[in-house]
Design a protein that fits this description.
single chain; alpha/beta; Alkaline Phosphatase, subunit A; 7-stranded mixed β-sheet; 9 strands
Length: 634
């Protein structure tokens, strides 16, 4: 999620979120504890292992899948997230979740849980759902025996730790509590759905497993629900979040939804497609696990094969092998979007990812050699993702290089990996295209090509309607302006990229506000706690950027990237000779480097931008070496 330093400067005077949680009952809605006929919600927690098709037994219910949390979380954390309507990664808390003694009328240890939430550097308020209900005279309750050992009980605990037991007849038509939560078997849930009063909302959820990120089965029966569940939180048919439950309950009861709740009300549409749900669940489970197989395996195999061919041919094959390797790496993201549409097995996906880019590169070098091959490869990869986003095909989240929705962090648009990759390929590809087909263009018109490409990238990949990645509103304009300034012969104007990024962010905020696009733009900027200022948010973001460079899992790649940057600095004279006479390509590479630097400084995954920038700019330098006459060598 990108750091919005530029926007923060403009918004420093904005008032920070207060600790109050206003919620006013809708006029005419009951404000007493008992409620009236139909004005209540029943939440039933089923045992593990219930498949979506089994929930067709719940009469009149819309069915879907629910993401239980960010990463692998405990059941207790899942239900705490339900209670607060918001969530963060466990790493944001300063301590693990404490053990609580669940009992009525107060939960022991709850105070430690509230204190822990305040350390998360986000507006996280455990018990917010129950607090809003109690402030409006509606007391939520837990039903059934054995509630003390059920993590789901935490969903109806208020901010002050109060817990109420439901009376006799709950859940069921004789229950008078406005919101109850209890456990049930599938048979009991089906029976309660048939007894459900008109206007009552019945939510049936599969119990989350211990320490796992598997998706949960969910069904909702009530006014307006039919077919497949969906939510603007995910923009994915059949897929909702745990944090969507609280806003859904409050909306049904006619109450306002606090700003601290980042979830959005659950909707439904169309007909239930159980095959699509099964495919979605299986793909999301595999996306994160296949990153190494589908991305690192081809890169490693290609590198070993290329090295073997070069050594075996005593250097004679070096140039064609290097050219093919460069184009294959550029085409790999496009190939991974293709495999996302096929949802193949791990072995098949690895085979396609390993073979197809190489075959396409060989064909491309044959049909359009030189700079044209580089331009076409970059354009193809950028274009397929742009088309997917604009057309709403929703393949990008299923790609192993995409936002990894199974992790629970992003469900639509592009993630940081694609953000950095597509920016570099847009800048380099534009330079290669101008080098191949635009030699007759004046410097001003060639510079305009970079500006137009940057504008298109910003609109597609940053807009909430499509890519929904605010960081793209920074790095695409910065890269485009830097490339245009270099090509125009005015490198000192590169600083105007920061102005372009600020202007882009402001326009993006206005556009998303006017169109009602649901993005994490303002939320990510003011993600700090209720007492945090904009300066605090910037400090938190900078801290996350620094942490990205010291993360042990990425440290070897980070060190290698920094070593390659140092090597390029010492060899800068040779690189300058290599790029002599290739002004558009040099401008495109400069834009890619400056854009990667901007992403590093403004993104909480800053090290990733260094990794991607070094990988692709290094490969492009190698491609240029392979495509130029031997006399350019030192």
């Amino acid at each position: 999620m990108a750091l919005k330093i530029s926007v923060a400067v403009v918004m420093l005077a904005t008032a920070c979120l207060g600790d109050a949680t206003p919620a006013v009952a809708t006029q005419g809605h009951p404000t007493g504890e008992s409620g009236t006929q139909g004005s209540r919600v029943s939440v039933l927690v089923l045992p593990r292992g219930v498949r979506p098709e089994a929930l067709s037994a719940v009469e009149g219910a819309a069915v879907g899948l629910m993401n239980p949390g960010l990463g692998e979380v405990s059941p207790a954390q899942t239900w705490l997230d339900v209670s607060q309507g918001a969530r963060v990664f466990d790493g944001r808390y300063d301590t693990p979740l404490n053990t609580m003694s669940i009992m009525s009328p107060f939960v022991r240890g709850w105070g430690n849980t509230v204190e822990r939430a305040s350390s998360a550097q986000a507006d996280i308020r455990p018990g917010l759902l129950a607090t809003v209900l109690r402030r409006n005279g509606l007391v939520p309750a837990v039903a059934g025996s054995g509630y003390e050992s059920r993590p789901s009980t935490l969903a109806v605990v208020s901010r002050d730790g109060r817990l109420t037991l439901a009376g006799k007849g709950c859940p069921g038509p004789r229950c008078h509590s406005p919101l109850t939560i209890s456990t049930a078997g599938l048979t009991e849930a089906a029976a309660l759905s048939r007894e459900r009063e008109r206007g009552e909302l019945l939510i049936v959820i599969e119990s989350p497993p211990a320490e796992s990120g598997d998706q949960l089965t969910i069904a909702v029966a009530g006014p307006g629900f039919h077919g497949m569940l969906d939510s603007d939180s995910t923009r994915t048919r059949g897929y909702v979040l745990s944090t969507d439950l609280a806003p859904t309950i409050l909306r049904h009861l006619g109450l306002g939804i606090p700003d601290a709740m980042t979830g959005l009300p659950i909707e439904s549409a169309g007909e239930v497609d159980f095959a699509a749900l099964a495919e979605l669940e299986g793909r999301y489970r595999q996306v994160g696990k296949r990153k190494g197989t589908a991305m690192l395996f081809p890169l490693l195999a290609w590198s070993l094969l290329a090295g073997g061919l070069v050594l075996g041919g005593r250097g004679r094959l070096a140039r064609p092998v290097v050219s093919t390797l460069c184009l294959a790496v550029i085409l790999l993201p496009a190939t991974l979007l293709l495999t996302a549409s096929l949802s193949p097995s791990t072995a098949v996906e690895a085979a396609i990812a390993g073979l197809l880019p190489v075959l396409a590169s060989v064909l491309l070098l044959r049909l359009a050699p030189g700079w044209r091959a580089l331009a076409v490869a970059c354009a193809l990869t950028v274009a397929v993702y742009a088309v997917d986003l604009v057309a709403g095909l929703a393949l990008t989240p299923k790609a192993v290089i995409g936002p990894n929705p199974g992790l629970g962090a992003r469900f639509y648009g592009i993630g940081n990996e694609l953000e950095s990759t597509l920016m570099v390929l847009t800048s380099v590809g534009t330079g290669a295209a101008v080098q191949a087909w635009g030699r007759a263009l004046s410097p001003s018109r060639a510079a305009l090509c970079f500006l137009l490409a940057g504008l298109a990238g910003t609109v597609v990949f940053a807009s909430g309607r499509f890519g929904a990645d605010v960081g793209a509103a920074i790095i695409f304009p910065v890269a485009a302006v830097a490339a245009a300034a270099v090509l125009f012969g005015r490198p000192r104007l590169i600083w105007l990229g920061a102005v372009a990024a600020l202007f882009s962010l402001i326009l993006l905020a206005l556009l998303d506000t006017l169109t009602g696009s649901e993005t994490h733009f303002v939320r990510s900027l003011f993600e700090g706690g209720p007492s945090d200022s904009a300066f605090d948010v910037i400090a938190h973001r900078l801290g996350a950027t620094v942490d990205s460079f010291t993360r042990l899992s990425r440290l070897p790649v980070t060190l290698l990237s920094l070593a390659l940057i140092l090597f390029a600095w010492f060899e800068r004279a040779w690189i300058a000779r290599l790029l002599q006479g290739l002004d558009p390509l040099r401008a495109g590479m400069t834009g890619a480097v400056i854009g990667s630097l901007a992403g590093t400084l403004t993104n909480d995954s800053g090290a990733l931008f260094i990794h991607v920038g070094v990988l692709y700019t290094g490969l492009v330098i190698a491609f240029i070496w392979a495509s130029r006459p031997v006399r350019t060598e030192p």
